[in-house]
Write a structure and sequence with these properties.
Blueprint: H1 2-17, H2 20-50, H3 57-71, H4 73-83, H5 85-104, H6 115-145, H7 147-152, H8 155-181, H9 191-212
Helix pairs in contact: 2-3, 2-5, 2-6, 2-8, 2-9, 3-6, 4-5, 4-6, 5-6, 5-9, 8-9
Length: 220
């Protein structure tokens, strides 16, 4: 029975991986999760070394971004219905890239009374909201569009692969960020911390280029 289950698992995996459109999607999705985790593990450094605020403000940043993203769920749903999920996700990647670019260039931007800190927290809210609801909905569209998925009941495999790649993106960020800190992680030399924001921005743009190749399935 175990060998039979393993064989079925392998067959299901191969069938799902033949779906080129899904491969494009999960690659772009993995890149997003890399960038998201870069800001999650780096926010304490961004707050203390770039904004020169107390470390406790890192929690304020993440809470503001999180709750603002929840408030955006309804308008994001409306935007997805009007323009399509792909276009909304693409716009969120650009928004995230701009947020990281502004983090990198804080020293050259006006920051009256720390307003820029809150602007960036709100800027992160839109991509967080988009990626909180649209990827799973897009996978459902991909599954509906796939004859193999309908005939072979492979729905679970699509989500399993997506979850695995999400963890890969997170793990890769956990490897890259500490490596960049070696280039500078102090008030006197915050270069490594700033560079992490630039790297995350580049990955967002790469994710945008990848997702541009995605063909959004016809609405179910």
């Amino acid at each position: 029975v175990q060998n039979s289950n393993e064989t079925n698992w392998r067959i299901s995996l191969k069938m799902v991986m033949r779906d080129k459109n899904f491969r494009i999607f999960y690659l772009a999705d993995t890149i997003f999760w890399f960038s998201l985790n870069m800001i999650q593990i780096g926010i304490a450094y961004y707050v203390t070394l770039i904004f020169e605020m107390d470390k406790s403000m890192a929690t304020t940043f993440m809470m503001l971004a999180f709750f603002s993203s929840l408030a955006l769920y309804y308008p994001i749903g409306k935007l997805a219905k009007r323009f399509g999920k792909k276009k909304v996700i693409l716009s969120s990647l650009i928004c995230f890239a701009i947020t990281f670019l502004m983090l990198f260039a804080v020293d050259y931007l006006p920051n009256i009374s720390g307003v820029l800190f809150y602007v960036l927290a709100l800027g992160a809210a839109f991509p967080l909201g988009v990626m909180g609801i649209l990827p799973n909905a897009l996978i459902a569209d991909i599954i509906h569009d796939s004859k193999d998925a309908q005939e072979q009941a492979l729905s679970g495999m699509y989500y399993a692969i997506r979850n695995m790649m999400t963890k890969f993106g997170v793990s890769f960020a956990n490897l890259v960020f500490p490596s960049l800190l070696l280039l500078g992680n102090s008030i006197d030399n915050p270069f490594g911390v700033k560079l992490s924001a630039l790297v995350a921005m580049v990955f967002c743009l790469i994710g945008w280029v990848v997702l541009k190749q995605f063909k959004e399935p016809a609405k179910a």
